[in-house]
């Protein structure tokens, strides 16, 4: 079974998600942005979700993390929780 390690930032609006994505792509640190802006409890770890397999996250999340290139910023990804920026840090 394939497993991934990923991190994310969760916000309530697509506009905020796009703004944070631009800041990260402009050189700001993902970890710092997650700690300051994410509404997920994972923000305490800089958005780190640890390792997980298929079906452990919502469908929209799985579709991205199991197909995106490793170490690329993805999003906004809309789920029932809000808008996510995602980064797969490893896939085995």
Report on this structure.
There is one protein chain. The protein has 92 residues and is α+β, with helices and mostly antiparallel strands.
Feature tags:
Chitinase A, domain 3, 3 helices, 4 strands, 92 residues, 29% helix, alpha+beta, four-stranded antiparallel sheet
Please render the helix and strand layout as text.
Layout (H helix, E strand, L loop, with lengths): L3 E8 L2 H12 L4 H8 L10 E5 L6 H7 L7 E7 L2 E10 L1
Antiparallel strand pairs: 1-2, 1-4, 3-4
Radius of gyration: 12 Å
The general outline is globular
Q: How many DSSP helices?
A: 3
Helix content: 25-40%
For the secondary structure, the number of strands is 4
> What is the level-2 CATH architecture name?
Roll
Average pLDDT, all residues: 97
In the CATH hierarchy, the third-tier topology is known as Chitinase A, domain 3
Q: What is the count of structural domains? A: 1
What is the gist of this entry?
The chain has a single domain, classed as Chitinase A, domain 3.
